[in-house]
Amino acid sequence: MANQNILIYDTTLRDGTQREGLSLSVEDKVLIADRLDRLGVAFIEGGWAGANPKDDEFFRQMQERPLNHAELVVFCSTRRAGLKAKDDPMLVPILAAETKWVAIFGKSWDLHVIEGLRTSLDENLAMIDDTIAYLTSCDRHIIYDAEHWFDGYKNNPDYALKTLKAAHDAGAKWFALCDTNGGTLPDEVAAITKIVDESLRQWGCNSPSIGIHTHNDAGLAVANAIAAVRHGATMVQGTINGYGERCGNANLCSVIPNLQLKMGYDCIATAKLSQLTEVSRQVSEIVNLAPDDHAPFVGASAFAHKGGIHVSAVQRNPLTYEHIAPESIGNNRRIVISEQAGISNVISKVETFGICLRKEDAACRQILQMTKDLERVGYQFESAEASFELLVREALGDRPKFFTISSFHVYCTTESLSIDGDVNSQATVKVMVKGEEHLTAAEGNGPVAALDIALRKALIGFYPEIANFYLTDYKVRILNSDSGTQATTRVLIEFSNGKRRWTTAGVSDNIIAASCKALGEGLEYGLLAAVRYTKF
């Protein structure tokens, strides 16, 4: 099957937005569509025109900025029971979207026809036929989404095939088999897809025309998509990062490299494959969801090595612990530093900082011992690599002193006798900058916010770059919970400058002190990154 073309159909903008907690503006949708177009997917499903004003505006804007590579697709259901397609007002905005391709979904499962649509099996066939025939007469190309296909086929195979035959006879060009409930197993997908392939050929459809649309409710969306491709599917529908309703859709960031790198299919241009990790992270930024660090292929931990033996082996030959070259999909190898680290971890990790050490260097064992000692008291450098780089530079005498926090005070007050009243937080920070001591104060909606604002206020006159640093995550972990409110606390703070992210850590019996350390190091690392590897 090597070099056979598999068309990638992205539905992030429609099915992906059904994920709980995910919402896109029109501007967001336009940005994602443009990025997917540059990646080289074949189809981009933009939404259901007429279902909401946002989708209507999206298709209007896309008429003014057509895609360069992908085909834009508008989505809709079959006409309503008892109406003719030409008289159904639901189809008016579908035509007004002015896309060449239309995805129409219809019912494959007799259970849904009777209990969902509350109509007859024959009327459902007529709805499929009439809708597709009408849109085809309007010079539209139809992708027929056979909703609940696999459940429908297992329950009543004869009727399910009749629905597909109705779509075929009406002029549909593609037939996407949907595992809408996400519970079908790969061997079932394989067997049923093969039957559909044989049926379509019997009906005179000799060109590749089967698509697969899988959901991840059983954790099998990617496996099911691959099983369908092995047995006749030549279009795969899915979403970036697997976004979608309930447990999500087939993750195209896993589907594409599996098909292209492991199985020899052509999904996107080889030169574009190295953009996959970047696209994954860009889309996660636009939808405002934290990237899944442990996602296959594109996750930050996908090629992270922690154990000393693993690191040593990977240094000799990456094949020992990597199933593909991370660079092929735009990711990179990461050496993780923790209490499990060895000398190999330290050497490999500091190389990413632009520092060259040898095993015989005393600094190697010093850094390793410092790491183990600090992790013993609660630090976690695998989650705070910025703090680790500062530690390394401190050990090597190469840590620039942008500023020093001399002292701080934080206090909270309430104007109400009730504990539910408004609480005001104020912070005072004394810092040493370039030999000068500065005392500043600020208010915030909480003690950490007040501390952050006061610290920035003291530094921004010296380092204007700080205005571009912002907090993207704040995590607190109680390390010895049996000590109750006197427990040791670890704080992890993630920062961003809009281009990259970094995380710092602070550990203390006092949560504010831990937060202050992480805040200070976060600003310090951002300044260091701004003048990367400059000797001070």
Automatic annotation (TrEMBL):
Tagged with keyword Metal-binding = no
Q: Which one of the record's GO molecular function terms can you name?
A: 2-isopropylmalate synthase activity
E.C. number(s) listed in UniProt: 2.3.3.21
Which enzyme class?
transferase
Query: Could you tell me which InterPro entries the record lists for this protein?
Result: 2-isopropylmalate_synth_dimer, AIPM/Hcit_synth_CS, Aldolase_TIM, Citramal_synthase, LeuA/HCS_post-cat, LeuA_allosteric_dom_sf, PYR_CT
User: Sorted alphabetically, which SMART domains does this protein's record hold?
Assistant: LeuA_dimer
**Pfam families registered for this protein in UniProt:** HCS_D2, HMGL-like, LeuA_dimer
Give the reactions, separated by semicolons, that this protein catalyses.
pyruvate + acetyl-CoA + H2O = (3R)-citramalate + CoA + H(+)
Q: Where is the Pyruvate carboxyltransferase domain?
A: 6-274
Query: What keywords does the record list, in alphabetical order?
Result: Acyltransferase, Amino-acid biosynthesis, Branched-chain amino acid biosynthesis, Isoleucine biosynthesis, Transferase
Pathway(s) served: Amino-acid biosynthesis; L-isoleucine biosynthesis; 2-oxobutanoate from pyruvate: step 1/3
Per its UniProt record, what PANTHER family does this chain match?
A: (R)-CITRAMALATE SYNTHASE, ALPHA-IPM SYNTHASE/HOMOCITRATE SYNTHASE
Q: What is this protein called?
A: Citramalate synthase
Species assigned in the record: Pseudanabaena biceps PCC 7429
